[in-house]
Specification:
There is one protein chain. The protein has 135 residues and is of the alpha+beta class. It has a domain at 77-135. Helices cover 34% and strands 16% of the residues. It contains five helices and four strands, in the order βαβααββαα.
């Protein structure tokens, strides 16, 4: 069987991630090439890297500590949306767990009951990542 060649047209985050993934998981005999345009510079969009990037990097065998050091990256605690429902309103989609379950029930069951009784804060008060992001 002759060697198989796969060419990805376009770089950027999606192109380079696709190339890395395909290179890692295609069977022997495949080559992967990526073609970028010299005419198109870095777009520079605000990319939303979410916690699932860890699964992707793990699949590629990338050590998280080495990756963060090499890229001078940081850990993202969440994504904030300003003007979410109206001017001046903000919403933080924090990553990570909210609250802590007790016994057989998840936290939100306790929170809903406490909220109905008027004794619970808004849900964001129970998110460590959201509290840390705003601090």
């Amino acid at each position: 069987m002759s060697p198989m060649r796969l060419v990805i047209i376009g770089g950027g985050t999606a192109g380079w991630m696709a190339a890395a993934c395909l290179r890692r998981f295609l069977p022997a005999g495949w080559s992967v090439s990526l073609v970028e345009s010299d005419e198109i510079g870095t777009v520079g969009v605000g990319e939303a890297t979410i916690p699932q990037i860890r699964l992707f990097n793990d699949a590629l065998g990338i050590d998280e500590d080495e990756f963060l050091a090499a890229t001078q990256g940081t850990i993202k605690l969440g994504i904030e949306f300003n003007g979410w429902t109206r001017l001046g309103h903000r919403y933080m989609h924090a990553f990570g767990a909210v609250g802590r379950g007790l016994g057989l029930l998840e936290f939100h069951h306790y929170w809903l009951r406490a909220r109905a009784a008027g004794v619970a804060e808004t849900l964001d008060h129970y998110s460590l990542n959201e509290r840390a992001a705003y601090a």
